[in-house]
Write a structure and sequence with these properties.
Strand content: 35-45%
Oligomer: single chain
CATH architecture of one domain: 6 Propeller
Strand order of the largest sheet: 1-8-7-6-5
Distance between the termini: 31 Å
Structural class: mainly beta
Order of helices and strands: HEEEEEEEEEEEEEEEEEEEEEEEEEE
Radius of gyration: 19 Å
CATH topology of one domain: Neuraminidase
Shape: globular
Number of helices: 1
Largest sheet: 5 strands, antiparallel
């Protein structure tokens, strides 16, 4: 059981910290922690007017003002491009999935960063990591990565420094991706793409939370077909999930995606809370509501949107040119 694994891992981490006081970081970078006013993180290339620039890690306060640039690795001698970041409970440390501007398609790696000390280390240098989450008790991370010698994605556990790594799913014919840890560090919700070709939302280890409609046409360049469910996240009380569902293959190749919520019981019917012919990216659910990025390819416009769990109270916190590739919003702990 995951809960048993997490208990054992916490003990192992405590022992490791007691026996090895060395700093796990090995490279200095230009970074700073979010201010006390900041409530959310996201990635974007909007720090410059150059279209398609590498994305940095940015922060905003509650009303969408006071933009803060937290990193500057896109401007360094070895530039990087942030894909996604997951903050630790102390707001200063995080795990980040990053690539480089000249990398092969799909190439990405997992980094452990301390923004307050401006240091970082790559956790798994020879692994294609796609998405990661930091546990709410700060003792472990869960991430999805391509399993060695396969094209399938599995879910992995490790301590934040990369030690005690374990493959949690080890599947051959299915892919598991985009995990999110529940608020109590007891279980995980994730996508599972099985032999039917439709991605559905599952609760660890194998409880389906969505059934998904019949398979439609594939969205080119992605593992998704119309009807696929993706990007799940728990509600703050751990009793519900929010996720996206692919509804069409248009919108400039991004696809059109609805945002839905459902009870995490495997029985309740999902409720659509945002719909229309736009791309809606991975949501994050906090005490202030549900965050997501919405993109209109025809208008070349992306918006960072906040809605309440019933779909009401829509508020646009930020608008950018779609070429900045704004995405992956996350509430900061304590926000």
């Amino acid at each position: 059981m995951l809960r048993r694994l997490l208990v054992v891992a916490s003990i192992a981490l405590a022992a490791a910290c007691g026996n090895d006081p060395a700093n796990p970081f090995d490279r200095f970078v230009t970074s700073r922690p979010p201010s006390a006013d900041a409530v959310l993180l996201f990635v974007s290339g909007s720090w410059t007017d150059v279209p398609g620039a590498p994305r940095e890690l940015l922060a905003l306060n509650a009303d969408g003002s006071k933009l803060e640039q937290l990193t500057a690795c896109g401007q360094s001698a070895q530039p990087c491009d942030f894909i996604q970041a997951a903050p630790s409970p102390d707001r200063n440390r995080l795990v980040a999935v990053r690539t480089t501007p000249d990398a092969a398609a799909g190439a990405s790696a997992l980094y452990f960063m301390d923004l307050s000390r401006a240091v970082e280390t790559i956790i798994f240098p020879n692994r294609k990591v796609l998405r990661a989450d930091y546990s709410p008790d700060s003792t472990f991370v869960i991430f999805s990565a391509v399993a060695p010698q396969t094209s399938q994605e599995d879910l992995y556990y490790s301590q934040p420094n990369g030690k005690a790594e374990q493959n949690l799913t080890d599947s051959i014919t299915v892919s598991e991706r985009n995990p999110r840890i529940d608020p109590f560090a007891r279980t995980v919700v994730f996508e599972r793409n099985d032999e039917s070709g439709v991605s559905r939302i599952y609760l660890y280890t194998s409880t389906p939370l969505t059934s998904g409609p019949a398979t439609g046409p594939a969205l080119p360049g992605t593992p998704y077909a119309v009807g696929a469910d993706a990007d799940p996240v728990f509600s703050p009380n751990g009793q519900s999930v929010a996720f996206t569902r692919l509804t069409g293959t248009g919108n400039g190749g991004l696809g059109t995606w609805d945002l839905l919520t459902s009870k995490a019981d495997g029985v309740s019917k999902p409720v659509v809370i945002a719909t229309g012919p736009l791309y809606r990216g991975a949501p994050d659910w906090g005490s202030r509501g549900i965050l997501f990025v919405e993109t209109d390819a025809a208008a070349s416009r992306s918006q960072l949107v906040l809605v309440q769990p019933d779909g009401s109270g829509r508020t646009v916190l930020r608008t950018e040119d779609a070429r900045s590739r704004m995405g992956s919003p996350r509430w900061l702990p304590g926000s």
